[in-house]
Design a protein that fits this description.
Elements: E1 2-6, H1 10-22, E2 26-30, H2 33-42, E3 47-51, H3 59-68, E4 75-79, H4 84-93, E5 97-100, H5 105-120, E6 126-129, E7 132-135, E8 140-143, E9 149-151, H6 154-165, H7 173-181, H8 186-205, E10 211-215, E11 219-223
Parallel strand pairs: 1-2, 1-3, 3-4, 4-5
Antiparallel strand pairs: 6-7, 7-8, 8-9, 10-11
Helix pairs in contact: 2-3, 3-4, 6-8, 7-8
């Protein structure tokens, strides 16, 4: 799962990045509001964590702009402000949840899990589709029918996670490149093909009926027609 963190307090940001990466989250960190907004506009994130007091553009305005341009990614606001009016302002700006500094690590992680469950239907850290289950903490892919399992690499996991979360949709190679590698680059498109092949082999290894189908000239779709 890919998270954007926009936080200008250096020590806080370093601690949060370390915590989130230990929990297997992919984290992009920016210091200024302008950088954070640009990242939101040009990348695909699963969750956005915003501080309120930021250089150039504050967190409230970033949240408002994010919703105005049609991006529905869950937003968690982080701030030292505890007044009710500030919480209301954050939620009215488009944030989904609000966490006041200082906070416990366990509470932050619980809030993130709750946002993920609400958005993606993740139950007990497991993403499911067809006859497969994907453990979001161990990166283990398993087949529900025969019990076969295999550990995915980080890129394989993120490809399959993105396909499951967006099941029923055809994802373009460009969308996958931006989501997995974070920017549009022609060289990265070849990586999509390579890692898509690796991921298909892992599905085949666990003898899953779930398949990644290529839609000619469009992209990829996760299907399970035989269960």
């Amino acid at each position: 799962m890919r998270i954007l963190l926009v936080e200008d307090e250096k020590r806080m940001a370093q601690a949060l990045c370390e915590i989130l990466r230990l929990e297997k989250y992919e984290v992009d960190h920016y210091v200024s509001g302008a950088e954070g907004l640009s990242a939101i506009e040009n990348n695909i994130y699963d969750i956005i964590i915003l501080d309120v007091m930021l250089p150039e553009i504050n967190g409230f305005d970033i949240a408002k702009k994010t919703r105005q341009i049609g991006i529905k990614t869950p937003i968690l606001m982080l701030t030292a402000k505890a007044e009710l009016d500030d919480k209301v302002t954050g939620l009215d700006s488009g944030a989904d949840d609000y966490l006041t500094k200082p906070f416990m690590t366990k509470e932050l992680l619980a809030r993130l899990r709750a946002l993920a469950r609400r958005t993606f239907g993740i139950a007990d850290g497991i993403l499911s589709f067809g006859d497969i289950a994907l453990d979001t903490s161990t990166l283990i892919l398993s087949c529900n029918i025969n019990g076969q399992c295999v550990r995915l690499s980080e890129k394989e996991y993120r490809i399959l996670e993105y396909l499951i979360v967006n099941c029923g949709q055809i994802l373009t190679r460009e969308q996958l490149a931006i989501k997995i590698w974070g920017f549009e680059n022609e060289a990265e498109y070849n990586n999509v093909e390579v890692y898509m092949s690796f991921t298909r082999k892992k599905l085949s290894f666990v003898e899953a009926k779930t398949e990644i189908k290529a839609v000619r000239g469009v992209g990829y779709e996760l299907r399970c027609d035989n269960v």
